[in-house]
Write a structure and sequence with these properties.
Radius of gyration: 14 Å
Structural class: mainly beta
Distance between the termini: 28 Å
Number of helices: 1
């Protein structure tokens, strides 16, 4: 049995992320670091995402894929972040938002 290597974080609070078109954008650090409910880890079959909820936005702290999965992130506005873990025959999509309140949903799809 091989020892899995630790994955590198795929994002940081106030860091760059990709929009669905692949264009990098920078999330305002102020939108997610002030107020709000703070950091939360959201588990899924494909991996786990840790996000920080602020008063006006959500920022990615880290996204750690499960073995056999790859991770992609998308954020077109400060208030909503999507982390997608894709593997052979399965996709886990975590959507974190602060509108109307801080919450995350997980959508699991097998194909």
């Amino acid at each position: 049995m091989s020892t899995p290597r630790p994955p590198a974080p795929s994002g940081r609070a106030g860091g760059a992320s990709s929009t669905p078109g692949g264009t990098p954008r920078t999330t305002s650090a102020q939108s997610c670091e002030r107020g709000g409910s703070g950091p939360h880890t959201v588990p899924s079959t494909g991996g786990k995402a840790t996000v920080r909820y602020g008063n006006e936005g959500v920022c990615l702290i880290s996204a750690v894929p499960a073995p056999g999965f790859k991770v992609a992130t998308a954020q077109s506005a400060d208030d909503t972040l999507t982390v997608t873990f894709s593997g052979s025959g399965h996709r886990s999509q975590i959507t974190a938002t602060v509108v109307p309140s801080a919450r995350a949903t997980v959508r699991e799809t097998s194909f």
